[in-house]
Specification:
The chain is mainly alpha-helical. It has one domain. Helices cover 82% and strands 0% of the residues. It has 3 helices and no strands. Helix 2 runs antiparallel to helix 3. The longest helix is centred in the middle third of the chain and has 38 residues.
């Protein structure tokens, strides 16, 4: 019975296809933004870690940026 609920009527199929395409574009864009933002946070974290006082903020930024990049890739 579960497969009957997931079926799209034939007259709604073009709209469903467009909706799936838009969803795919948003997912890929979101992943790209997450990866780029993670890289930027890692660079800022490294720059802050160069100064001894900024290391308190820089090291968590590096870790958070790395985790964000991993989330963007997978």
């Amino acid at each position: 019975m579960a497969s009957k609920e997931n079926r799209v009527p034939w007259f709604l199929w073009p709209f469903w296809l467009i909706w799936r395409l838009v969803t795919l574009i948003f997912e890929l864009t979101g992943r790209l933004v997450a990866a780029v933002l993670g890289l930027v946070l890692m660079i800022v974290g490294v720059v802050l870690t160069i100064t001894v006082i900024g290391a308190v903020i820089g090291i968590p930024l590096i870790i958070f940026g790395f985790l964000l990049m991993i989330r963007g890739f997978f």
